[in-house]
Amino acid sequence: MIQSGDLVVVTAGVPSGLSGTTNMIRVHVTGNVLIKGRGVGKLSVTGPIHHGDSTEPMADGSILVVRDLEPEYMELAKRAGAIITLKKDTHRQQLLQAFNLGFQLS
């Protein structure tokens, strides 16, 4: 099993007619899981993390992390690829807010 900080080589792809070869090699350094949550739907999202209270500008498609989906975060939420809220007891209301923002909740 790999550990945090290990260097890993990932290979993929098969050039046609050349058995045992690859056409893609990626080298990654593994890291720690920063945050986990329960998703809604079947989509997977990756992107840079943006904390809602940060003064740095947020890139479109970022994963927005906020304590709760308060009104002051709505403009950021509209541009986010995903939203992670830290408050556990308002799940249903957050689903409605995400739906109203156009997130797919399949």
What's the short version?
The chain is an alpha/beta fold. The protein is built from 2 helices and 5 strands; from the N terminus they run E-E-E-E-H-E-H. The two termini are 33 Å apart.
Describe the structure.
- With 106 residues, the chain is of the alpha/beta class.
- The protein is 15% helix and 22% strand.
- The protein is built from 2 helices and 5 strands, in the order ββββαβα.
- The longest helix is centred in the C-terminal third of the chain and has 10 residues, at 91-100.
- It starts with 6 loop residues before the first strand and ends in a 6-residue tail after the last helix.
- The model has no long low-confidence stretch (mean pLDDT 79).
Reading the helices and strands in chain order gives EEEEHEH
- What's the mean pLDDT score? 79
**Secondary structure category:** alpha/beta
Number of strands: 5
How much β-strand is present in the residues? 15-25%
Q: What are the main properties of this structure?
A:
22% strand; 2 helices; three-stranded parallel β-sheet; elongated; 106 residues; alpha/beta
Furnish the topology, listing elements before pairings.
Elements: E1 7-12, E2 24-29, E3 49-51, E4 63-66, H1 74-79, E5 82-85, H2 91-100
Parallel strand pairs: 3-4, 4-5
Antiparallel strand pairs: 1-2
